[in-house]
Amino acid sequence: MSSITAPASASVAPSALSTGGSTGSTMAGGDFETFLKMLTAQIRNQDPLNPMEGSDFAVQLATFSGVEQQVRTNQLLEQVAIGQIGGLGALAGWIGKEVRTTAPVSFKGEPLTLDIRPATGADRVELVVMDAQGREALREDIGLGTGEVDWAGRTAGGPLADGLYSFKLVSYRGEEVLSTQAVGAFARVTGAEVTADGVRLSLPGGASALESEVTALREA
Record's family (predicted)? Predict the structure, then answer.
């Protein structure tokens, strides 16, 4: 018994994220040039009977070098902060939308919308459902239709247990496997964060997906 029902509404193409940023100031470099001019004038005008020790010059250079590095560090931190704020502002646009993702999504008895795309020339198609550990939880023959369908998650013994599931589609011609491909499922975005792996979107039921795992975006 198939748990696939009538097609759902069409989706729209995903939108790209943008990030903010700013250019650094040249003030620090200008101050350093001013310091060199002042140091040169100091050398020219020092008392020949009581010249400044070389160690004094070294102390002055070291002190100004430290100030110069601190100014540049502050500029860099400012740029990073502005970039993060701009990026997080862009991420806010994802929240409340529905994304189509190949990452595992949460199933709690309510139908999930899947995007089914059989291989050209297929005469039989199987939908394979995998649990959070990647183990096969269900395999069922479905029709040859293409597009969005509602998957109810039902088996002969009743609905699948609540949990995270991912999907793949196996297309056959006779006994020959034409293709095995991941199936996208729609889920609503509840949050977003920037991680070392990229932008990660929070989905219901403890699921999440990287931006690279998202193939479409639409209004919920």
Answer: Belongs to the FlgD family.
Residues 108 and 212 in one domain: yes
At 62, is the pLDDT very low, low, confident or very high (cuts 50, 70, 90)?
low
Written as six digits, the tokens of 9 are 């509404």
**194 and 124 together in one domain:** yes
Q: What does the pLDDT read at residue 175?
A: 92
Query: Are residue 104 and residue 78 in the same domain, yes or no?
Result: no
Contacts of 181 (CB under 8 A, 6+ apart): 117, 119, 168, 169, 171
Same domain, 106 and 43: no
Q: Can you give the pLDDT at residue 30? A: 56
SS3 sequence of 108-170: CCCCEEEEECCCCCCCEEEEEEECCCCCEEEEEEECCCCEEEEECCEECCEECCCEEEEEEEE
Is residue 211 left, alpha or beta, with left meaning phi > 0 and alpha meaning psi from -120 to 50? Answer: alpha
